[in-house]
Design goal:
By secondary structure, this protein is of the alpha/beta class. It is built from twelve helices and 14 strands. It binds zinc ion (ZN). Zinc ion binds next to loops.
C-alpha cells in the first residue's frame, strides 16, 4: 500500500469514528470529506444532537450528546461539572442542568485539553463557574496546537476558558458534603489527563483513559501512549471496587469488570502488534495481518476501527 493511499484510508477511518462518537450518529465518509475538518463537522453535529441525562448515584448525573461525557454533581452548595462538551450545546446543556436542579453552577473540572471536552469552557466560566484542571491542561489550552489527524489547528483559548485553579499531582475540593478528589495520571491519552472521584457516591470519572466499549484514540502529539493507557487502566482498577460506578470519556457508564476487559484488550492488541513489528513487518503489512481481528466486532464496530487502532499501537511498540 503506498503512503498516500494508506494515510487517506486511515484518515477516513478516524474521521468516521470521531464524528460518530461525539455526534451520536453515523456520518458517512462522503459527509465527512465534504467538510474541511472533522472538528467543524463535530461542532455542527453537536448543534443538532439532543442531550441525554442519566442519574447515577448521590446526585451525580451524566450528560451525553456534546463531545465527551459530562458529569454533573448537584447539591446545596451548587453544581459542579466534569468537562464542558462542545460550546454550541450551551442552551441544551443549561436546560438539562436546570431539570436536575435550580442550584447555581459553581465549578468546572476539565479532565484534559481536547476540544470535545473543553470547547464549552468559556460559557461555563461566564455562568460563574471556577475552572479547575491540571497545570498542563492550562498550558495546552494557551498554545497553538496542530492536530494532523483532525486537519485542524487549535488556537489559544480565551483567558476565561482556562483553568484558573491548577495542580500538579492531586487536589481535593469540599463541595456538597463530598471531598472530591482529582488525581493526575502520568501521560496516557494525553500529557494532562486527570481522574475525578466522588467518595460518598463511589463514582470515578476516568475521562479518556477509558472508552466504553471502543478502541481509544491515543494523542501522540500530546504525549499519549499505549503503555500510558494500560498504566492508567491499572491505576483506575486500583481505585475502584465492584460497587464503583465508572464514567468513561466516551460511551456508556460502566463498572470495574468492563474496565478490566478494556485493559485486557489493550494488552492483547499490544502483544499481537508488537510481535508483527518485531518480525520486521511494515505498518501496511501489519494492518493487513489484522492483529485486532478477534476484537473488532466488540471494540471496532462503531468508533476507531481495527486498522486505525493498529496504526496507533504500531507507533507505540
Ligand atoms: Zn480526549
Amino acid at each position: 500500500m503506498d503512503n498516500k493511499k494508506n494515510s487517506t484510508i486511515s484518515r477516513g477511518h478516524f474521521l468516521r469514528s470521531a464524528g460518530l462518537i461525539t455526534a451520536g450518529f453515523l456520518l458517512t465518509p462522503k459527509d465527512i470529506f465534504a467538510q474541511t475538518s472533522p472538528v467543524i463537522t463535530i461542532k455542527s453535529a453537536a448543534a443538532t444532537t439532543p442531550i441525554t441525562v442519566q442519574a447515577l448515584r448521590g446526585d451525580v448525573h451524566v450528560l451525553q450528546g456534546s463531545g465527551g461525557n459530562i458529569s454533573v454533581f448537584n447539591g446545596k452548595d451548587g453544581k459542579l461539572m466534569v468537562d464542558a462538551g462542545i460550546a454550541v450545546s450551551k442552551d441544551k446543556i443549561k436546560a438539562a442542568m436546570a431539570k436536575i436542579g435550580s442550584e447555581p453552577l459553581k465549578y468546572l473540572i476539565s479532565t484534559h485539553w481536547h476540544f470535545d471536552h473543553c470547547d464549552g469552557n468559556e460559557w461555563v466560566h461566564n455562568e460563574g463557574a471556577t475552572i479547575i484542571g491540571h497545570e498542563k491542561t492550562r498550558a495546552n489550552l494557551m498554545k497553538t496546537i496542530r492536530v494532523v489527524d483532525w486537519d485542524y489547528t487549535f488556537r489559544p483559548m480565551p483567558t476565561g476558558a482556562l483553568p484558573s485553579v491548577v495542580f500538579k499531582d492531586e487536589r481535593s475540593l469540599d463541595f456538597n458534603g463530598e471531598k472530591i478528589h482529582m488525581k493526575y495520571y502520568p501521560p496516557a491519552h494525553t500529557d494532562c489527563d486527570i481522574s475525578v472521584y466522588f467518595p460518598h457516591a463511589d463514582i470515578l470519572h476516568v475521562a479518556d483513559t477509558w472508552w466504553n466499549p471502543y478502541y481509544p484514540f491515543i494523542d501522540h502529539n500530546s504525549g499519549g501512549s499505549l503503555d500510558g493507557m494500560i498504566d492508567a487502566c491499572d491505576r483506575n482498577l486500583k481505585m475502584t471496587t465492584a460497587r464503583t460506578i465508572i464514567v468513561p470519556g466516551h460511551g456508556a457508564v460502566g463498572d470495574s469488570s468492563q474496565l478490566g476487559e478494556f485493559r485486557d484488550m489493550l494488552v492483547a492488541v499490544r502483544h499481537n502488534v508488537s510481535k508483527l513489528k518485531k518480525e520486521g513487518r511494515s505498518l501496511a503489512d501489519t494492518i493487513k495481518a489484522k492483529p485486532t481481528a478477534v476484537f473488532d466486532h466488540k471494540w471496532g464496530e462503531y468508533v476507531l476501527d481495527g486498522a486505525f487502532f493498529t496504526k496507533l499501537v504500531y507507533a507505540d511498540v
